[in-house]
């Protein structure tokens, strides 16, 4: 038995994602479709496989060259796409006197190729088409006796059709069919079938009952089937095997998002749930945020940090299923306290985690896991915080028309001092109350994909000046002292250096937050973030005053103008986001 896998197509319906990855290499549950099909044919006893190629052929050939199959797998490059019929004819030298299998490379199926081949060998007809019932693609007419009687796109009147079913792109052909396909030109296998039927030959339909099939020709269908596979495997890790005696109903609830572009969902079966972090389909082969989320998350879990377990993921589709930590953020817990001073013990426990994060997270950390930049350095401070503050907040939000170069001396000095007084370790880079979950009284860190090496004081500044909770200054000073004492027994960093670095990180973090709040409210239309701008400006003013007015004169002089411009802006009203539940 030999087989041809049709893999030459452009994957037009999957653009722009298929521009960098050929459709046959789209992964399902972490494995490329092409590999899944070849392994299925291999297990069925197929002796040799031919893969026709055109679009991004070198990537397909490179992938196959890295695999180890027990059967022969070769490729046939088509300078011009020949269609399904043309590809079958073009492989004429590959075929022998036995019937052969032809299968599309853009389908997910659990078909038993051995059973299919046995079915074909058990009847005298020259072709077998595998059919299923799918309302989106039902175009093949089938008689009650199980023979193909026509195709919806031919000229026969509709009323003469029998039941309509879907051609799955899987077929078994006798070599005699090759005589009906023209050589060296584009043609469809359907053309050959119509010639067969016109000559009086019959085409048998194979319609197995225990059969799964799905075409992944569009992004939506591809992501849906991938999520189904990942979800089944994730629940296999979180639920006891006995729970699978029956198929429980599944519900999917979209969760309220925050500042990122990702979408979040809670998927529940019976009394078990997982969280889906949907990063979206991959637009390019280069490092993506989903990669950092997976790699850094697994690293931190391995180092014993309290982060959610990543249960299943697919980098290409951007789907990551993680442990469900519940709905309680540190923000909600602290803001529900009548006296925030009494949050000291809770924050001390979080600082204990922060110290461990800084030290243990740095051990074995690979800078290749990071997204956009490998470390928190001078360039990042100037471009991702100072320029962000200028462009998004001062000019975009406040319309101050400020020239970045007018503040460049202050910004350069700030960047230099932040780096100079940095006590380096692993940093989360967004360690604020919305990224800390509380489950069974224990804090857990989420949204760690921005992690990298840099000043450990930055995470402490993020935690203490967090505008979502607005901790009293006296509590901030107590926690600064507590954190410094904890670090002394874990890293070598003088107290004076630690405090100085913390003071500068308060400023850089404030600039970053103001840029982010302005961008999210103005460009992403997430207007709820505007409520935190005034408090962040007050923190910036306090931090600049603590550094001394002469240290950053340009920024210090700008603060009153910022405050006046904010005071003159119209007050905003905000609507609450309502969660919608979707039952599957």
Polypeptide structure, described:
By secondary structure, the protein is an alpha+beta fold. The chain has 3 domains: 2-215, Spore Coat Polysaccharide Biosynthesis Protein SpsA, Chain A (Alpha-Beta Complex), CATH 3.90.550; 219-323, Phosphorylase Kinase, domain 1, CATH 3.30.200.20; 330-567, Alpha-Beta Complex (Aminoglycoside 3'-phosphotransferase, Chain: A, domain 2), CATH 3.90.1200.10. Helices cover 38% and strands 18% of the residues. It contains 16 helices and 23 strands. It has helices at residues 33-43, 57-65, 83-90, 113-121, 189-198, 219-238, 289-302, 330-335, 344-360, 378-397, 408-420, 456-464, 473-488, 495-522, 533-547, 553-567, and strands at residues 2-6, 27-28, 31-32, 48-53, 72-77, 100-104, 107-109, 127-132, 140-142, 148-151, 163-173, 203-206, 213-215, 250-254, 263-269, 272-278, 310-314, 319-323, 424-427, 436-439, 442-445, 452-455, 581-583. The strands form 6 sheets. Strands 1, 4, 5, 6, 8, 9, 10, 11 and 12 form a 9-stranded mixed beta sheet that branches. Strands 17-18-16-15-14-23 form a 6-stranded antiparallel beta sheet, sandwiched between helices. The protein has a two-stranded antiparallel sheet with strand order 2-3. Helix 10 (378-397) runs antiparallel to helix 11 (408-420) and helix 10 runs parallel beside helix 14 (495-522).
């Amino acid at each position: 038995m030999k087989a041809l896998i049709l893999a030459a197509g452009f994957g037009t319906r999957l653009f722009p994602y298929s521009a960098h990855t050929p459709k046959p290499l789209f992964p399902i549950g972490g494995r490329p479709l092409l590999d899944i099909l070849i392994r299925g044919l291999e297990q069925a006893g197929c002796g040799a496989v031919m893969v026709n190629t055109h679009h991004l052929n070198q990537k397909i050939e490179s992938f196959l060259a890295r695999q180890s199959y027990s059967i022969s797998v070769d490729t046939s490059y088509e300078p011009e796409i020949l269609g399904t019929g043309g590809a079958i004819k073009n492989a004429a030298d590959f075929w022998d006197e036995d019937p052969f299998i032809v299968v599309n490379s853009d389908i997910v199926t659990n078909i038993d190729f051995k059973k299919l081949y046995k079915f074909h060998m058990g009847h005298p007809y020259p072709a077998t088409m595998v059919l299923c019932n799918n309302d989106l693609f039902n175009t093949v007419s089938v008689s009650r006796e199980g023979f193909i009687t026509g195709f919806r796109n031919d000229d026969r009147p509709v009323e003469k059709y029998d039941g309509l079913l879907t051609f799955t792109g899987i077929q078994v052909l006798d070599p005699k069919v090759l005589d009906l396909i023209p050589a060296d030109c584009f043609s469809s296998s359907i053309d050959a079938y119509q010639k067969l039927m016109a000559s009086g030959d019959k085409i048998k339909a194979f319609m197995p009952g225990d059969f799964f099939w799905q075409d992944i020709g569009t992004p939506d269908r591809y992501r849906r089937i991938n999520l189904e596979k990942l979800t089944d495997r994730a629940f296999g890790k979180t639920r006891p095997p006995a729970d699978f005696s029956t198929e429980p109903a599944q519900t999917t609830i979209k969760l309220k998002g925050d500042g990122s572009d990702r979408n979040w969902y809670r998927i529940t079966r019976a009394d078990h749930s997982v969280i889906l972090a949907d990063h979206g389909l991959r637009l390019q082969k280069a490092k993506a945020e989903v990669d950092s989320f997976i790699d850094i998350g697994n690293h931190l879990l391995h180092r014993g940090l309290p982060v959610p377990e990543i249960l299943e993921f697919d980098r290409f589709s951007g789907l990551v299923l993680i442990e469900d930590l519940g709905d309680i953020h540190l923000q909600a817990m602290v803001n529900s306290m009548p006296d925030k001073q009494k949050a000291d013990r809770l924050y001390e426990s979080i600082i204990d985690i922060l110290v461990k994060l800084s030290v243990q997270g740095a051990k074995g950390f690979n800078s290749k896991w990071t997204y956009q930049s490998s470390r928190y350095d001078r360039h990042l401070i100037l471009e991702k915080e100072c320029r962000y503050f200028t462009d998004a907040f001062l000019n975009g939000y406040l319309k101050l028309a400020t020239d970045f170069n007018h503040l460049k001396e202050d910004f350069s000095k700030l960047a230099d001092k932040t780096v100079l007084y940095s006590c380096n370790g692993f940093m989360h880079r967004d360690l604020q109350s919305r990224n800390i979950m509380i489950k069974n009284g224990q804090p857990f860190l989420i949204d760690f994909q921005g992690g990298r090496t840099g000043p450990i004081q930055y995470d402490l500044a993020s935690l203490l000046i967090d505008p979502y909770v607005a901790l009293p200054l006296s509590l901030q000073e107590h926690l600064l002292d507590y954190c410094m004492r904890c670090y002394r027994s874990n890293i070598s960093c003088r107290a004076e250096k630690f405090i100085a670095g913390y003071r500068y990180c308060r400023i850089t973090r404030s600039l970053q937050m103001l840029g982010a709040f302005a961008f999210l409210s103005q460009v992403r239309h997430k207007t709820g973030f505007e409520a935190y701008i005034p408090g962040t400006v007050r923190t910036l003013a306090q931090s600049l005053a603590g550094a001394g007015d002469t240290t950053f004169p340009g920024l210090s002089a700008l603060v009153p103008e910022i405050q006046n411009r904010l005071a003159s802006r119209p007050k905003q009203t905000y609507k609450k986001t309502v969660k919608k539940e979707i039952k599957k």
